Amino acid sequence: MPKVIIDGIEYEVAEGRNMLEAVIDNGLDLPYFCWHPGMGSVGACRLCAVRLYKDESDTKGKIAMACMTPAKEGTRISIKDPEAMEFRRFVIEWLMTNHPHDCPVCDEGGHCHLQDMTAMSGHVYRRFRFKKRTYTNQYLGPFITHEMNRCIQCFRCVRFYRDLAGGRDFNTFGSRNRVYFGRQSDGVLESEFSGNLAEVCPTGVFTDKTSARHYTRKWDLRTAPSVCVHCGLGCNIIPGQRYGTMRRVETRFNGDVNGYWICDRGRFGYEFSYGALKGGDGDIDEAKKLLNEANGIVGVGSPRASLESNYALQKLVGVGQFCTGLSAFEQEAAAAYINVFQTGSRRMPSLAEVESADVVVILGVDPTGEAPMLDFAIRQAMRKAPIEIARKLNIPDWDANAVINALHEAKGKLYMAAPWSMKLKEIAAETAQVEPAMIPDFAREIASDQANGLAATIAADLAKARKPLIVTGLSAGADTIRAAADLADSVIGKGRDCGLFVTVPEANTMGVAMLGGACVQEAARKSESGEADTLVVLENDLSRRLNPSDFDSLVKSVKNLIVLDCIATETTKAASALIPVTTVFDSEGTFINNESRAQRYFSVSPPKEGLAQAWTRIRDLGGFTQWSSCEDILRELAAGKPIFAPALAAAPFADWRTEADQKIARSPHRFSGRTAKDANWTINEPQTANDTQTPLSYSMEGDQNPPAESSLIPRFWWPGWNSNAATNKFQIEVGGGLHGGNPGIRLLAVQGKLSETQCPKSPERPGPNEEAREIWLVPRPYIYGSEELSRRGRAVAELIPPAEAIIHPQTAEIYGLENGQMVEFYTKDGQKLSLPIRVEDSVAMRVAIIPVGFPETRGIIAPDIARIS
Amino acid sequence: MAFYRAHILVDTGTAAVLKGANALRTALVDEIKRKGLDKEIKVVETGALGLAGAVPAIVVYPEGVTYANVTVDDVAEIVEEHLLKGRQVSRLVYKGDTPSVIKSAENCRSAEMRVVLKNIGVIDPTSIDEYIAMGGYEATAKALTTMSPQEVIAEIKASGLTGRGGAGFPTGLKWDFTAKADGDQKYIICNADEGEPGNFKDRLIMEGDPHQIIEGMIIAAYAVGAQKGYIYIRGEYQQSVANTERALDVAREMGLLGSDIMGSGLSFDIEVFKGAGAYICGEETALLASLEGQRGESRMKPPFPPTHGLFGMPTVINNVETLANVPHIIVNGADWYSNIGTQKSKGTKIFSPCGDVQYPGVYEVPFGSTLREVIFGMAGGIKSGKKFKAVLMGGPSGVLVGEEALDRSLCSEDLNPGAGALIVLDETKCVVDLIKNCAQFFAHESCGQCTPCREGTKRMVEFFNWWTAGAGSEQDLKLLDQLATTMALTSKCGLGQFAGVAFKSSIPLFEEEYLAHLVDKRCPAGICEMDKVEEEVRV
Questions:
Q1: pLDDT at B104 over 60
Q2: pLDDT of residue B533
Q3: More confident call, A215 vs A869
Q4: Is the minimum CB–CB distance between A66 and chain B shorter than 8 Å?
Q5: If you count residue pairs, one on A and one on B, with CB atoms under 8 Å apart, how many are there?
Q6: Domain range annotation of chain A
């Protein structure tokens, strides 16, 4: 490791760093704006100026930008050099000339990097007396507020949006001191990652519009470490609450999963919590009575409920009577995935590891719609794949613009085959729109020696890739997963380190799949056949998984329907006993993400107004008095099912304390209104809720500094670093992993030897018969609208596309359909679906693409053949 | 955004300002307002239009009519006739074919040595036959049929030819880097974005002898193995674009461009690309970005253009004058060339003295000639019998020198000539006003990427606005000096690094004049409106 000298003291730094990173890695402070650990250096803001000396004898040195200076052995700089300090103060003074100083009304105030850096640089006196430059702001959609007057022209936004997120509708406009960042004209930002602008912007140009509706300063937010519930990737988040309601969601850095970023569904989907069920105990007494009188009970679990709640339900109804809450299609695919996971030698990369792939083949899933951060990770992979070109020119990886310039148009190879054309097509080498049943065959053709055309091209690229990666998902079906595994094996057979990444639809799909049980269809059968007259449904809307007629007959046939949920659904409407439970933000538990990573999440606030967490309700229903906390359930589960045992280490238990024998404070040290914040409903000073369940406290009492346990970080905050940039104080090296390791523990292990062929041949499936006016009906996930919870949020709801059936122009011609025409589809099992037609050439022939999870397409989650009216 | 039926571009380059362009602009704005046309017609300030001998000049769009030598007295007529009645004022229309800066070779004075300019004013620039009759394309034939690419590079290296755009990088070395770089596609770019105010030498070459540039580019392409060339011409140079494009067409027809040129196996073609008027795009990496269709912003080096240039491919970027020298080196040999000039600066340099000289124009002299020879020997000294005061070397990004520098020689060892502009001031001019104009130019042209340049150039302008409005104070001089130093030390590219150079060099020479403005609130030359206290004045 090179040794550098900073202000006369020798420090060690990792290989290939720049001096700004060297300074921060070693716990020192140096202000900066345009550099970002996730985006590298460009040397634009000139704030990290230091004095750079040639060697020991050099007393003069020169002013240099730390972020553009490689940290080589013997590099000698001074941060405290008076001239460098003076220059940094100068830069801030320049930047401040036009800044509106509207901190009191600015949403960034209190977690503002500009405030921190101004204080750090020592600019205190304003000499500027001219008119400030002003701009016109733009409407950028329901997520982001634009206030250009605050801009300090660090160029981070445009670099994030264009270089990292691949957006094209946002840019730099104008020149000189009139530089403008925005869109060509007002309009909704097209990128699915636009919310990160609020975090990369060092000041308040881009702020969270949803949060502004019920704004709270960072110091007044109670926060806790949590995990995103809006897809199966398990991105780490920090939900913030005040007065017991959600105020905003920010990224919780996890170097193995989402890094510094989250998608817009994850950031803004939280608004569903405003429509959450209230009503205290609900019908708990009624439910107890019904359970006592029941003649056969079936429990339906949920992929959006915690592992602990699902296990509690399984225990309540008995293993044989437990159903995972997955549909038959999902269940089969999940089983295939778990089998594939445990029986091969393929790399099963984490989300962060996806970024190192250089050739990616996507089979039948749409990352953008289903697991948006995978879209982001693939973009990073494609961007970074040809990095060797830059390295050959001795350009360090962090020199962002030089790397872009050297790589130019070069990028990794992305191929995809799916029934529709997805957004990632814009960076793909080639794509194929194919019928759903043909995707496994396509994968098999790539793996075979007789590949032709596109399959041959893909095979050739995979065979010479450095880190090839096959991507598929549960929504592509079991056959595709098996075929994808076979393809990965064939590439490994050619000596390549091939990975397989499989998406799952919901936050705990893997948890319930690993817990095991029957599918939803089986639960419905048991109820209709009279085997059970009582159904206990945990956080699951059965109408999303059963087709409408099956759902109706289930509701009719079941005698007692006991439902626990945090939202009102078709299922809660039909409940004979409804028990409201807290949302994920007010619950503890464990989610198991798509790569089987067990991650704990913690409630932000204590349950209020009589509400309770789902596991406590089930405990009460079953009289399981041995469970005093969620952890007790996990312990019991781990003892009974060793596969879950590693999950115990995902986060410390309630008896954990810091070295100073403290818990971790959910409220920051500047939390205000402690005695009066509930004055709207009581004049008494309420006693602070005592959290006996977790190592965190609900108040500001406790440790405020970073715990050695990364899974317990409730917020990133550090003296002098009020913004999220404080993350660097929690990392081993800035931009790298967290102290104590990144949160989460993987449960499934790769076996390490080549497996038997999973799926030599797809089962014969007749395609649609054109003469009988048959067509493939293929559900497609959309980022906004397909996910059950987020679509209830106000901002997300604004962006839900209309429910339409998209067909190819030639298909339209064959069936005599026109754009905009209302068409009725009749599925094999007699369901009728009415949707308007949209004709587009972005889809495969003989398919109609319909949105999944929309009320208009309720119950259809697997591709099926339907007849057109 | 408001819609204007007409735009008037006012040349506010340094030379034009010295001849009253600011007063002209004000008069135009006032007159348009008086006629109630201010909602329909917009007056826009633009950089030098390259009409140094015919300024102040304006261009009226959408017609694109250029009026030259416009005075305040002409304003009423132009507004009334052209803008109101739609009739062009023919007596003022700039004809463009024979710019007044082009003088015939017969008038050439003894000290001038015309190498690059030898055909200018002698041949018809639209006729390739006349060019060939003067020995044109002999160099191309010699290089492509009798020399290997390595020999061409060796010859250029031996000649000591350096870049004429101002930075003076050895041309042969640049070619060598590109020749040795890997790449299926290589490019030759001729940088004809002559944006530095006061410079108009490249325009003259393009207008008067465009084939010379084409020839230089063909030879460069042969030497490095390039297939495609671009001539990046600033959009205001309409005549340059026209003449160059015509020359390219003719050359293509004659097989001098296209596939297998002269049976050498070289396939090479050239395209003209018009710049949109940003000064920064004259900087080579910003020029590349602009050519690629991106924002004109400078890029970090490395990677350097010779290995990673246009579209990431190896690229030679040479100034017009540099390329125009190439054919002469090939025909006459490196020895001949390296005997011209000084120890370190080989060959000739074209200067464009302008401002208060008797004969503003373009003059080619060997490196090492003195400033006095150019200004007094060729440009005829100061006009109207006034006294010499100072000269801005190379344009706003150069240094200001006074009388003591007149006998210094113009070469890289002594007084660096930059790109060749010599903006001359007579005794009646105000240095503060001149530097203010330079500051305005940089504040307008900063790309906005790095803080010191984006904010610093703006602050400089504000300081000068104070000073020329009678609101300065003595400490300001030190403050601005400090600001200029900081900008020079810390800006990302040359634009910001050189933005304060003219100011800094002017302080020791004209401190008294600054103090007159700052302390006595008086402009000795009577140019700055010291009593005009605007709203933007310090409190």
A1: no
A2: 58
A3: A215
A4: no
A5: 111
A6: 3-98, 276-324+516-640, 344-503, 774-868
In this structure, the answer to whether residues B146 and B264 fall within a common structural domain is: yes
Cβ neighbours of residue A637 under 8 Å, at least 6 residues apart? A307, A308, A311, A644
Residue B50 domain boundaries: 6-92
Assign a CATH topology to domain A276-324+516-640: Rossmann fold (3.40.50)
The answer for A8, left when phi > 0, alpha when psi is -120 to 50, beta otherwise, is: left
How high does pLDDT run on average in chain A? 93
- CA-based nearest residue in chain A for residue B442: A176
For A628-644, write each residue's pLDDT tens digit.
Answer: 999 999 999 999 999 99
Whether chain A has a CB inside 8 Å of the CB on B448: the answer is yes
Domain harbouring B198, CATH code: 3.40.50.11540
CB contacts, 8 Å: B459 with chain A: 94, 97
Is pLDDT above 90 for B61? no
Average pLDDT over residues B510-517: 95
Q: Tell me, what's the pLDDT at B338? A: 93
Instruction: Quote the percentage of chain B above a pLDDT of 90.
Output: 60
Fold of A3-98: Ubiquitin-like (UB roll) (3.10.20)
Closest in A153, A390, A409 to B448, CB measured: A153
Asked if B307 reaches chain A (Cβ–Cβ under 8 Å), the answer is yes
Cβ of residue B276 closer than 8 Å to a chain A Cβ: no
Residue numbers in B near A407 (CB within 8 A) = 312
> Chain A, 707-766: which have a CB under 8 Å from a chain B CB?
none
Q: Which H or E run contains B68? A: none
The answer to whether residues B475 and B467 touch, using CB atoms and an 8 Å cutoff, is no
Give the global pTM. Answer: 0.90
Which is higher by pLDDT, A740 or A602?
A602
DSSP annotation of A721: B
The complex's ipTM works out to 0.81
| A281 vs A588, more confident | A588
From residue A429, give the alpha-carbon distance in Å to each of A382, A409, B404: 10, 12, 65
Query: What is the reported pLDDT for B481?
Result: 94
Residue A212 forms contact with B (CB below 8 Å): no
Q: Do A176 and B444 touch (CB under 8 A)?
A: yes
Domain spanning A344-503: which superfamily? Answer: Dimethylsulfoxide Reductase, domain 2 (3.40.228.10)
pLDDT tens for each residue of B425-451? 999 999 999 999 999 999 999 999 889
Nearest to residue B121, comparing CAs of B136, B137, B139, B99?
B99
pLDDT beyond 50 at B232: yes
Q: Which residues contact B472 (CB under 8 A, 6 or more apart)?
A: B463, B466, B517, B518, B519, B521
Tell me the pairing of strands A822-827 and A864-868.
antiparallel
DSSP A757: P
For every residue of A231-263, DSSP letters joined together read: SSS--EEEEEEETTEEEEEEE--BTTTTBT---
Task: Please report which residue ranges of A318-395 form alpha helices under DSSP H.
Answer: 328-342, 351-354, 367-370, 372-384, 387-392
Angle at A730 between CA A724 and CA A734, to 5 degrees: 80
Give the bridge partners for A40, in sequence order.
A36
The Cα A507–Cα A583 span in angstroms is 13
What pLDDT band is residue A847 in, cutting at 50, 70 and 90? very high
- Residue A701: count other Cβ atoms within 10 Å of its Cβ: 14
Other C-beta atoms lying within 10 Å of the C-beta of residue B394: 26
A200 interfacial to chain B (CB closer than 8 Å): no
By DSSP bridging, strand A468-473 and strand A499-503 are parallel
What tens digit of pLDDT does each residue of B362-407 get?
Answer: 889 999 999 999 999 888 889 888 999 999 999 999 999 999 999 9
- For residue B47, name the pLDDT band (cuts at 50, 70, 90): low
Cα separations (Å) of A284 from A106, A526, A806, B100? Answer: 45, 24, 45, 98
